[in-house]
Amino acid sequence: MSAEPPLSPYIAAQLNHLLAYSPLSVKVEQIWSGSKDARFSDRFTLAIPFCLDYVKWDVIYNALHPSLAPDVVFSPEDDDFNPLADIAREGEVRMSKSSLFDWNSKDPSRLMVLVHELRDLYMHYHKRRVGELDDARLKFELNTMLSREGIEVCMVSFPDKPEEVKFSVPLLDMDLNKLVPACTWRHQQKIYLQVIFPVIKSYSSAPAAPRIKLVSTSEVKSLFSIEDVKLPPWLDGMCMAEYLPFIEDNLKLLVVEALASIGARRRFIEALAPLFGRPLEADPVFCRRATVLCASGPFTFLVHFSIPTQFPKQQPILVMQSSQHFNSQGAPISSLPFNDYPWSPRWDPQKMAERIFEFLLDECSNFKKFCIDAMPQ
User: Fold this and answer.
1) Where is the signal peptide (predicted)?
2) What are the residue ranges spanned by the domains of the chain?
3) Highest averaged pLDDT of the listed ranges 2-11, 146-155, 263-272, 368-377
């Protein structure tokens, strides 16, 4: 199967601008050509973040006429989503503001503007669908929560299961990116509460609790683990407006602890230098990793420190790696991870480093023997 030809330059410029500058983490699923022996490709599938999932839309340009605005093909399950009808329904003022009204193919930002505009309309489409449901609880949740900035809601339909409504609720009114000094996160990092309600036709005085889950953008795991956060119980008769303060108070404390842990990890890495020498490399932002060079007589080896987000409650994981012994594939021989050496979270960083130094001093002869035995004969 031959590779698809490159995108037309005008089209490529617009796609690259979208991927580089959109605040959304948009992904390209595939690129292809609408013609069999075409010089350029002219269509692609975008995966666009929406309500803690992705919607996939095909963007169809015409390589022979790249100055024309593209068509956008939505998912089959959204066959009644008609954004042009929504624009027309709101009259000429909305039409004149639409990115399709005065398309300029030489402006590389036009595709990004179009995608954001369509996503906004798609969000309103789902809110309208939920608002039309004959479900008193969902109407109440929708009316009380939609004023909250950044909230998203969508209908979830299954062929053989009852319909559900999913809410995506951003938590914490704080800029996580600015809280971490020298942070290199490209996209704004957020923590969300996902709340999924079953659609019911009649209101119950004590409806079943929804399914709830914390979700975060991918880089937040460098700060702390969302999976380890224990959610408070959803009490009978509770609504989202009542539930959110409990979890946000808990998360604020966890963020404060996570930021303090970065400082503790940094002081620990700094305490390694007097004993091991300056680390060969270290993570300067989250202080999760460090590598030092050690020697015992002529035997030299590296020690890799993997420092958990729960430091100092949890101790670093150590891996020793020889700089002189290699396996049959030519890779340096390494030890199994160590996390059972003497440790107390109450020790100061200097004592932590000293006890690790003493442990490695005793262990290096065992590791040297392990390396010699592991060498190919």
Assistant:
1) none
2) 1-111, 264-374
3) 263-272
Return the CATH fold of 1-111: Ubiquitin Conjugating Enzyme (3.10.110)
Query: What is the C-alpha separation between 142 and 131, in angstroms, rounded?
Result: 7
CATH number for the region 264-374 comes to: 3.10.110
pTM (2 d.p.): 0.79
83, 85, 112, 272, 328 from 26: Cα distances, Å: 20, 25, 10, 41, 42
Burial readout 40-72 (b: 16 or more C-beta within 10 A, e: otherwise): bbbbbebebbbbbeebebbbebbbeebeebbee
Per-residue model confidence as pLDDT tens digits over 64-118:
888 899 999 998 888 889 887 765 555 554 555 677 778 888 889 999 999 999 9
Q: What residue has token string 């004592």?
A: 351
- Same fold yes or no, 1-111 and 264-374: yes
| The residue to which tokens 């022979």 are assigned | 64
- Helix H segments across 90-173? 92-97, 110-131, 136-145
Strand pairing partners for 338?
318
Which one-letter DSSP state was computed for residue 137?
A: H
